[in-house]
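hiii, so i know i said id send this last week but things got crazy w the move. better late than never?? heres the sequnce for the chain we talked about at the cafe, plus the structure i predicted for it. fair warning i was half asleep when i ran it
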Amino acid sequence: MGSKPAYEAPELTAWNKHAAKVICDTNGLILTARRRQRSIGRNNQSRYIWFGEKLSPYVKTGYPPRLKLKPRERTGRQGRVSIEIRNAKGDKDLRARAEDIECLIDATSAGTLVLSLSTERLKTLDMTCPVEKQEDALRDAAHVAKKLIDWWEHEAHSIRPVPPSH
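okay and structure toks below
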């Protein structure tokens, strides 16, 4: 079973670029506005957008987490900013620290820990609505992203590495 064919989605690319400008103008954070495609038979409008910030690695694996802006999805998931930490699904201490800042905590089947924050305005962020009507939500996204970055950089330096096995 092959992948579904894709076609260019210039309106999504334009939305990403405009959203990236609002966020950068707010606090200097960079969204990676790449050319977007849509798969035939699937709606990829709600797909995430990577932040370009380089974060300190998770000391237990050496992999840096990724920060994403995730607009509202048709499945009902609300707009949010998420930090995704590879192979951290079972880190109870990190989960507890994330709860302290009121993160929504989730995990993927591949073991990635997903920590998300939002605001009332950010929850409504929707790629089917013009950026001009959602600038407040995007400014909130910029502030939430900065909060997650600052939190992670503090936590990354307080997590104990896994001791070597003998």
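btw The mean pLDDT is 87. thought thatd interest u
miss u guys!!
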